[in-house]
Structures are given as C-alpha cells and as structure tokens.
Amino acid sequence: MTLPKSVLLDSSVVIKWFRESEIWREASVFLRQEYLNGRLKIYVPSLLILEIANVLRYKPDLTSFQVQEALRSLYDLQIMIIDLSQEAIIKAIDLAYSWDLTIYDAAFVATALNLNIPFITADEKLIQKLSSFSQVHHLSKFETRSKSEDET
Q1: How far apart are CA 85 and CA 90, in angstroms?
Q2: Residue 19: its pLDDT value, please?
Q3: How far apart are alpha carbons 107 and 114 in whole angstroms?
Q4: Domains (ranges, CATH) in the chain?
Q5: Are the beta carbons of 120 and 9 closer than 8 angstroms?
Q6: Residue range 38-90, pLDDT digits in tens
Q7: How far is residue 95's CA from residue 107's CA, in Å, rounded to a whole number?
Q8: pLDDT tens digit sequence for 120-149
Q9: What would the pLDDT profile of 111-125 be if each residue is shown by its tens digit?
Q10: What residues are paired with 7 via a beta bridge?
Q11: Longest Cα separation, the chain
Q12: Which of 7, 22, 51, 92 sits CB 3.0–4.6 Å from 110 for a disulfide?
C-alpha cells in the first residue's frame, strides 16, 4: 500500500508502540517514524487514550508509573486527537448496528469516514467485518514496506 498523507490509527496499532513482542510491531513503528519524519499525519479519536491506558493497566509487568509515562509519551507525540462529535457518535451507532461492531470500534471507523482518511487497524475480526470498506486497511499492509526500509 502506498503511504497515504493522513491516517486514523486504531488502538490495536498504537499499543504496539509500547509492547515489543507484538506481531506487526515493525509496521506500527514504521508509521510512527513516518509521522516523526513529517511524511504522515496521524489522527486518533480521543477514545484511543482511554483504550491504551486500559490495555497497559492490565499488563502485569507494568507499574502505574510506567503506564502514566507511556500516556505522557503518547501526548508528547502531538498526534491529532479528535474529540468525538455528536455526528460521529450517531454514525458510529449506525455502523455498529449495520456491521455488528462494538460502539468503540465503530467510533474509530466513523471518525475516519468523517475525516475521509484511511483507517488502519491490526484487528483481524474488524477487517473481516469491514472488508467492503475501501478506507479500512490492515496494519500488515505496511509490514513489507517497513522491512524494506530497514534493509536500505
């Protein structure tokens, strides 16, 4: 997949920035690096912050301080955090009912659709449910690119 100018990332992608043993971590780090190099704009719904904090909170190897530091580093990146508008929440509810999604997942998709940018996720079940959406892409599409970047 050609690198778009802007993307909306799922929590399943961003969590890989904090967990080294995650599958497709290289692809998620590649996207973060492209952002840091100024070649990519990253958007996330505000819900992502809570989801990341919650996932990290339940990792037994992390302390409260480490989770707080991870969230600080996420804020320090200054990625575009989008508040969920009433319009996005209404669209999320429609998507959730139409495609058998959680409201949480649908909120990410609705935000990407409202911004008219690609939504990148590592959630395979979500990808299967939304396979007809041209704006929804699996993180693995960036895996080959990240490895070829490492080889140069």
Answers
A1: 9
A2: 86
A3: 10
A4: 6-84+117-151 (3.40.50.1010)
A5: yes
A6: 999 999 999 999 999 999 999 999 999 999 999 999 999 999 999 999 999 99
A7: 9
A8: 999 999 999 999 999 999 999 987 555 555
A9: 999 999 999 999 999
A10: 42
A11: 46
A12: 92
CB 35 within 8 A of CB 77: yes
d(CA 44, CA 82): 6
Q: SS3 of 119, please?
A: strand
- pTM over 0.85? The answer is yes
> Six-digit token pair at 151?
């080889």
Token pair, residue 81, equals 């955090």
Q: DSSP per residue over 51-98, as a string?
A: HHHHHHHT-TT--HHHHHHHHHHHHHTT-EEEPPPHHHHHHHHHHHHH
Q: Which residues contact 57 (CB under 8 A, 6 or more apart)?
A: 67
The alpha-carbon radius of gyration of the chain (Å, integer) is: 15
Other C-beta atoms closer than 10 Å to the C-beta of 87 total 10
